[in-house]
Amino acid sequence: MSFVDDLVVLRPEGLYCPPGDFYIDPWRPVGRAVITHAHADHARMGHTRYLAAAPGEGVLRARLGEIDLQTLAYGEAVDHFGVRVSLHPAGHVLGSAQVRLEHRGRVWVASGDYFVAGADDDPAEGNATCAPFEPVRCDCFITESTFGLPIYRWAPQRELFADIDRWWAANAAAGRPSLLMGYSFGKAQRILAGVDPSIGPIVVHGAVDPLNRAYRAAGVALPPTRLVTEVIDKSELRRALVIAPPSVQNSTWARRFGDASDAFASGWMQLRGARRRRAVDRGFVLSDHADWPGLQRAIGATGAQRVIVTHGYESVMVRWLTEQGLEAGAFSTEYGDEKEEVAESMTTVGA
Length: 351
Prior knowledge:
Blueprint: E1 9-11, E2 14-17, E3 22-24, E4 32-34, E5 49-53, H1 57-64, E6 69-72, E7 77-80, E8 83-89, E9 97-103, E10 106-110, E11 140-145, H2 157-173, E12 178-181, H3 187-194, E13 202-204, H4 209-217, E14 241-244, H5 252-255, E15 261-265, H6 272-278, E16 282-284, H7 292-302, E17 306-312, H8 314-323, E18 327-330, H9 337-345
Parallel strand pairs: 3-4, 4-5, 5-6, 10-11, 11-17, 12-14, 12-15, 13-14, 15-16, 17-18
Antiparallel strand pairs: 1-2, 2-3, 7-8, 8-9, 9-10
């Protein structure tokens, strides 16, 4: 889907802004990259210069190392070749941002990945580990659609974390460790911020620990955590909640916890088939992406008459948008929750 004078077009390297001569979350090395957030499918190594939201600096450097990085506070704008660029909260993970582009009276917004709180706007239903999603008015909205099917509707977070706490508490009472797997960046910290730390000690995998440090340095409150090597009294592990990436399942690292009850936290756990494939004791439906109603609310709040879907269930979302009388199409990108899972599996499970 491309029109003359579009502010964003699709190139082999990624989403490109022709008047500004820069890319948004490119998947091949480029000279100038605006990064929406630090997940591996959106923030890649090899670009010459990076621009990102200031709250995400720590996690970006933790994941990408020494990079030429310029940061902007949310809402702060810079002018680049006549394109006014600003970054606005996406509610997805620490430092996640939507990219607002303004040029010659036209406004486009590229969402990156985003999470929208429940319809009642209860603050407790937002992502406690990052700034909440901020609707940005625009002419064209480039949106994700990771969970763009009507089946995906997230339960209230109070219920979800109460369920996790009950599972952990029951295991602790039985002297059994609770191994909860989720992505090291974003999901792990969301779990930490939501559970009741009074139930027992919390142990994290080595891939989670540096990201926890980056979150704490950014002012995000997380309960105390330890690496397994820092646990002196090994009997404590029988009451512990162990948070680790999906790659540890059936690994030597995981086997040190003995007869642990294992669980997986993901939006994909909404589907019974996904739970069976994971072969875990429990599946907790927890996502840092908008569900079907959240996508609809977010798109409507932009006031955009044109919407471009970048990844997920593109055809379903495009059809729904068209039925609403909007001009809709899709970009074929290399983003996706599955790619982040692959990236997690590349971490060293012996850490």
